[in-house]
Amino acid sequence: MPDCSIGPFDELPRQKPSIPPASDAIRGGGGARSRAQPNHPRSGFEAALRGALNRCPSCGQTALFARYLKPVDHCEMCLQDWTPQQADDFPAYLSILITGHLLAPVIIALVSHWDVPTWLLMALVLTLAAGTMTALLQPAKGAVIAMQWWLSMHGFARPEPIQDAGPSAAKSE
Ligand SMILES: [Zn+2]
Predict the structure, then answer these.
(1) How far apart are the CA of 119 and the centre of ligand 1, in A?
(2) Which residues in the chain land under pLDDT 50?
(3) Residue 61 Cα to ligand 1 middle (Å)
């Protein structure tokens, strides 16, 4: 369950040293996340920027994508598992939104300042739109995956703290 009180640009206290010493934290489990990561992003914006630049959002050292829109299963450097990502159609929505905002002034300028024939206008706009959307799709997906990871959404959820089986657990039986 994502923590909705945390915004995408809030700095999370991930780098704060926990109460037990670091050696215990590494030994204590938690998988790849408990490894020491000196390059951990300081904010969601930094994580999203790394993802948009095809870098591992966690460490920034390796490529996030194995192919155009296929993320790697895990980072070779920090061992972060990227298989829980569920970007789905959101990167495509973002690409279309940005492309529309970039091309709208161009189209308005072409129509209002130059007498461009309709066939040329269509050819220009369709080519520009297809190229811009294709170029923006991978950065958008990288940023979406990074934000899902930063906000601990879907399979990126932090493991629940282990609680002692006290009287409340016995009562629920
Ligand atoms: Zn990494």
Answers:
(1) 47
(2) 13-35, 169-170, 172-173
(3) 6
Ligand 1 geometric centre to CA of 150 (Å):
13
Determine the pLDDT at residue 173: 45
In whole angstroms, what is the distance from residue 149 CA to residue 147 CA? 5
Residues, CB within 5 angstroms of ligand 1 (ion): 56, 58-59, 75, 77-78
CA of 157 from ligand 1 middle (Å) equals 17
Q: Give the span between the Cα atoms of 57 and 72, in whole angstroms.
A: 12
Q: How many angstroms separate the alpha carbon of residue 65 from the centre of ligand 1?
A: 12
Position 165 scores a pLDDT of 56
Angle between helix 44-52 and helix 118-150 axes, rounded to 10 deg: 130
Quick one: pLDDT at residue 12?
A: 54
Residue 3, pLDDT score:
57
Q: How far is the CA of 60 from the centre of ligand 1 (A)?
A: 6
| Residues in Cβ contact with 54 at an 8 Å cutoff, skipping those fewer than 6 apart | 63, 64, 65, 138, 139, 142
Q: With 0-12 CB in 10 A as exposed, 13-18 as middle and 19+ as buried, what is 170?
A: exposed
CB 15 within 8 A of CB 40: yes
- Yes or no: say if 18 and 25 are a contact pair by the CB < 8 Å rule: yes
